[in-house]
């Protein structure tokens, strides 16, 4: 039986990774020795990465471990934004476009009332 993990655990991994790299990266998962974006922080929460992680990209392990990243559609919680994307895309959008801190993103993931859950996608009819 495979075990998958949800948003509250994803938030904990983001916080753990952010504690290892204190600056926030925008447009890249990692920048030098000190910066990561929200998804980069989650990946670093899973694995011990080299000090300089420039060019490192999360593997499919992140999507497998947190199947909510690609299997869940969310509304963007930023005021005035009407985007609806996969959870992974919303995290990148919040990080890069709205410049939410990794802590704000983690707090949003933990807040079940505020995270804009939408019903799961249904496959198109044949």
Key traits:
three-stranded mixed β-sheet; mainly alpha; globular; disordered C terminus; single chain; two-stranded antiparallel sheet; 126 residues; 6 helices
Write the layout of secondary structure elements.
Layout: H1 7-20, E1 23-24, E2 30-31, E3 35-36, H2 38-46, H3 60-65, H4 68-71, E4 73-75, E5 84-86, H5 87-96, H6 102-110
Parallel strand pairs: 1-3
Antiparallel strand pairs: 2-3, 4-5
- Total tally of structural domains: 1
Main sheet: strand order: 1-3-2
- Portion of residues in beta strands equals 5-15%
Listing every helix as H and every strand as E from the N terminus to the C terminus, the arrangement reads HEEEHHHEEHH
Proportion of helical residues: 40-55%
Structure, described:
The chain has 126 residues and is mainly α. It has one domain (7-110). It is built from six helices and five strands, in the order αβββαααββαα. The strands form two sheets. The protein has a three-stranded mixed sheet. Strands 4-5 form a two-stranded antiparallel ribbon. Helix 1 packs antiparallel against helix 6 (102-110). The radius of gyration is 14 Å and the shape is globular.
């Amino acid at each position: 039986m495979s075990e998958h993990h949800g948003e509250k655990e994803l938030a904990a991994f983001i916080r753990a990774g952010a504690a290892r790299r204190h600056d926030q990266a925008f447009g890249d998962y990692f920048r030098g020795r000190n910066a990561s974006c929200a998804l980069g922080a989650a990946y670093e929460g899973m694995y011990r990465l080299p000090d300089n992680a420039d060019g490192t990209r999360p593997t499919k392990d992140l999507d497998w471990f947190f199947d909510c990243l690609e299997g869940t559609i969310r509304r963007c919680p930023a005021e005035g934004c009407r985007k609806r994307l996969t959870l992974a895309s919303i995290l990148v959008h919040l990080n890069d476009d709205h410049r939410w801190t990794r802590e704000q993103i983690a707090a949003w993931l933990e807040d079940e009332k505020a995270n804009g859950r939408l019903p799961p996608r249904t496959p198109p009819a044949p």
